[in-house]
Amino acid sequence: MSTESISDRREHIRSISVTALSALLGVAAAFASMSITGDLSPADAAGDTRALMLVAGAILAQFILYDFTGIYGEDEFGIKHYLFITFMTFSLWFVTWGILLTTGVTV
Question: How many domains does the chain have?
Fold first, then answer.
């Protein structure tokens, strides 16, 4: 019973860590995208591929970070985890950057 609760706690902490890091890197990529495309109009900034490369770099950096830190074991990191990290990072970047573009904030 005690090993089961320790394992459950470890899984819970790991899932919170991965979710929080994905969300924070998505928001950070949005602010970085805004700083790169700050001199463009919102319509031109939305079509700039440098911003998309930033979010792709944030996603890839997470995969490297998780592999380096060993948060997931070799058998535990599957396609579901790749999709979750990609979706969370991209969606937070998309929403945050969209808000920044429509409000006209300068970074």
Answer: 1
Residue 84 — φ and ψ, nearest 5°?
Answer: -65, -50
Is 87 strand, coil or helix? helix
Range of the domain at 35: 2-103
Strands (E), 1-107: none
Mean pLDDT, consecutive 10-residue segments, the chain of 107 residues? 64 86 95 89 85 94 84 72 93 93 81
- Backbone torsions φ then ψ of 51, nearest 5 degrees: -65, -40
pTM score, whole prediction: 0.83
What pLDDT was estimated at residue 104? 78
- Look up residue 44 and give its amino acid: D
Return d(Cα 16, Cα 43) in angstroms, integer: 35
Q: Which two tokens stand for residue 90?
A: 């991209």
Q: How far is CA 90 from the centre of its chain?
A: 6
Cβ(101)–Cβ(34) below 8 Å: yes
Instruction: Quickly count: other Cβ atoms within 10 Å of residue 55's Cβ.
Output: 23
